[in-house]
Amino acid sequence: MTNTDFGQFHRIEQMIGQEALKRLQNSFIVIAGLGAVGSFAAETLARAGIGRFLLIDCDIIKPSNINRQLFATWDTVGQTKTDAAEKRLLSINPNCCIEKRNLLLNSVSMPHLFQTFQAQNDSPDFLIDAIDSLGPKVELIVAALASQIPMISSMGAALKINPALIQTGRLTDVSYCPLAAILRKHLRRRGVCTDDVFAVFSTEAVREKHQDKIISKEFSEDEKPSQGRRRNTLGSLPTITGMFGLHIAHYAMTYLMNEKSQTRRNR
């Protein structure tokens, strides 16, 4: 090894210190949704040294995903997003542990997932909601808060073009986001205080002609997961969706480095 050859995480350790790096490496993160936002969050966290992931998505990769999703290439079209993500993340950090669920999260599957965490005494250190459908998003947030799992939720990145207006904050305070507005309404009906939900969002106003298109239709309980979800097609830029994912990854890293209990068991 020459004087300029360092370990994979040397520069991160230089920046945050050995103990903080160890906390990242001993952390367990769940990422729900591996599309435009979730793929950038997942890859960034793998590069940061996160030691264990649970990756959840029910979709396969299509050509229309290639413009904005890191795991989507012509070589991966037709693969499940979870399989493509696993291969990519292990190529970045072969020492991380990856679990996969090719699963649609809804009111049926969600309780089972969280009951598994409880039964195995294996609660995640952090959860990322990068789901793009309203119904599953509501169910995931409700379940995570009930289980006291720290999390961050992605609001709508489609139809946004100004990167300077992307920020993080309480769901209560999100403005100019139709998804956030309807999400708040559904969560409050479920008894959730939206002050307790942290989110990444853009304060850029959506043009009026797009207002009725921006909310994805909910998955119906009588549909089979293999049919996928009915959703509206919205324009988006890889820069904006990627920045949403990077904001999420940075928030997760900051939480795990600074707030996660150092007394939790190593995994």
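[next item in queue]
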Amino acid sequence: MYRYLLFDLDGTLTDSAPGICRCVQYALGKMGITFTDLKALEVFVGPPLRQSFQDHFALEGEDAETAVAFYRERFSTVGKYENSPYPGIEKLLASLKEAGFMLAVASSKPEVFVEDIMQHFALDSYFDCIVGSDLEGKRDSKAAVIREVIRRMKITDEKRSGMLMIGDRRYDVEGAKEEGIDSIGVYYGFAEEGELEAAGADYIVNTVEELQILLLEKINE
């Protein structure tokens, strides 16, 4: 039976695509790259930011760091609020807390931004622990974020079997596997078709409502 539920933020708790895509576009413009297809920039939702600039625009080393800095220039004041919780998320969180689960946020977004967003949408009170990456890039893989959740929540090795990572991208599933915990992949976020199956998610749902049923009625009976 699961007791500790770890939630990704972008694409799992909130639809953050508008802010992320506009901030990526802003950063690219500052780097002299004109890119108008905001929809195509949704590939930036989920993975570590530096990695995405490297993978999709071949920005390496100092160029990648500069692009990240430009991104955060806009995100820290405007972009983080171009965002909204998915319908049904607050109801889900309330029901999970009432059922006695311990909840954590495990996001690759810098922790300072995660905390701001959670407070802005009044979701922070549902969580026992909120963990993100650090601004220096020392904790930007999902596995590293999960390890920090484990440390802060003082989860022993014997209790790891009671942990469950919930996220919308393969990075969430792969990070969970690296740390030896189970995962739920959600398709209401930004995963491509077949992505979560290929990554090896233990469970898959398509809606917030299906997630609630799975957590409260099926796998924790």
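[queue empty]
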